[in-house]
Amino acid sequence: MKERLRPGPVLGTPPETGERFIPDLVLGTPPQSRERLRPGPIQGSPAIREAVCIQTDKVYDSCREKDCLENLRVFLTRRGQEIVDRAINVKCRKSEVIWVFPDVEAVPFNRGFFTVSVKFFFRITLDVFTGVGAPTPVEGVATFDKTVILFGSEGKARIFESKFKEDAFDPQLCSKTNLPKAKVEVVDPICLAAKLVDITDRLFETDEFDLAGVPESVSNCFDDELAAGVERKRVFVSLGLFTIIKLERNVQLLIPAFDFCIPERECIAATEDNPCELFERIRFPTDEFFPPQREDFAGAEDVFKNPNSCR
After folding, report:
1. Which of 93, 175, 244, 301 is deepest in the core (most CB within 10 A)?
2. Which helix (H) or strand (E) holds 138?
3. Whole-structure pTM value
4. What does the CA dihedral 56, 61, 66, 68 come to, rounded to 10 degrees?
5. Is residue 78 within 8 Å of 214, Cβ to Cβ?
6. Where are the alpha helices (DSSP H) in the chain?
7. If we measure between CA atoms, which residue out of 222, 224, 195, 242 comes closest to residue 100?
8. Is residue 133 left, alpha or beta, with left meaning phi > 0 and alpha meaning psi from -120 to 50?
């Protein structure tokens, strides 16, 4: 089994000297050469055409996290809260990410390191049981805050870009900081549990929450306004969350280029005169009529080999 490569310098050992070096085997440059490569045609390599300089976002540091978020309060819409106040039980049907707000700040006395503060907003869909019969679906928002420390290097150059926007101040005249850019990759969380709490019981806290902290862009995702401070019962959910957080900087990199990437396939389109022509190109959906077996799903067999898993 091959070991997974990781970001960082590539080191090798020439057998004749035993000296550590960074080989340029891909570009065809001898290992003994210490001259910096420059953009231009590559000689002696039939596959690689030239070394080109590109402007791209380089990942300086990253981390992945698997968080179990317990007892997140769900702030319901006004109509949903009225239904929950009459509820006898709730069940979490679905949870999805509405938006993620990352913020980057330098760590004092630690050059090159930054704190990445991330605030998640989740849309929670609940099934509310008010008696005998089908449950009533209601929606609300839950939030979660997370802070990590990553290496983002440092730079003093101020970046300006020439971008035109009609009827607005030209962005190229605005000074830009040289902080690294945080990027958060996240999948919709897994609903693990939901519970209903009657706050008239003095055993539970009755703290208030200011909905002014919820951005308007998030509140507009719901059909009704969010309500807080007028409830008799509250809903708390537990979620399983997978995230990857990165710190990137926009840099110039020298990379090997094989050639220009020119599309070779022609676009497929249906004409108004013969719409069935496009339909004939679509394969028959066999899996919809004959669902795949368990062994057809990657990793499914390994899950059921776990002695601690349910069967």
Report:
1. 93
2. strand 136-151
3. 0.72
4. -110
5. no
6. 78-84, 216-219, 276-281, 286-289, 300-305
7. 242
8. left
DSSP 111: T
Tens-digit pLDDT string for the chain (311 aa):
556 656 666 655 444 443 333 344 444 444 444 466 677 777 777 777 788 899 899 999 999 999 999 999 999 888 988 888 888 899 999 999 999 999 999 999 888 999 999 999 999 999 999 888 888 999 999 999 999 999 999 887 777 766 666 665 555 455 556 789 999 999 999 999 999 988 776 555 555 566 777 888 888 888 888 887 777 888 999 999 999 999 999 888 888 888 888 888 877 666 666 778 777 878 888 888 988 887 777 776 666 565 554 54
Nearest residue to 83 via CA among 123, 127, 122:
127
Residue 6 burial (10 A CB sphere; 0-12, 13-18, 19+): exposed
Residues 6+ apart with CB under 8 A from 124: 74, 92, 94, 95, 139, 140, 141, 142, 191, 235, 237
Asked if residues 301 and 295 have their Cβ atoms less than 8 Å apart, the reply is yes
* Interior/surface letters 143-164, b for 16+ CB within 10 angstroms, e for the rest: bbebebebbbbeeeeeeeeeee
Three-state SS across 176-243?
Answer: CCCCCEEEEEECCCEEEEEEEEECCCCCCCCCCCCHHHCCHHHHCCCCCCECCCCCCEEEEEEEEEEE
Among candidates 88, 83, 76, which has minimal Cα distance to 123? 76
Q: Which amino acid is at 124?
A: I
| Residue (of 121, 145, 96, 297) closest to 216 by Cα position | 121
* Dihedrals phi, psi of 232, to nearest 5 degrees: -100, -30
Q: Phi and psi of 79, rounded to 5°?
A: -65, -40
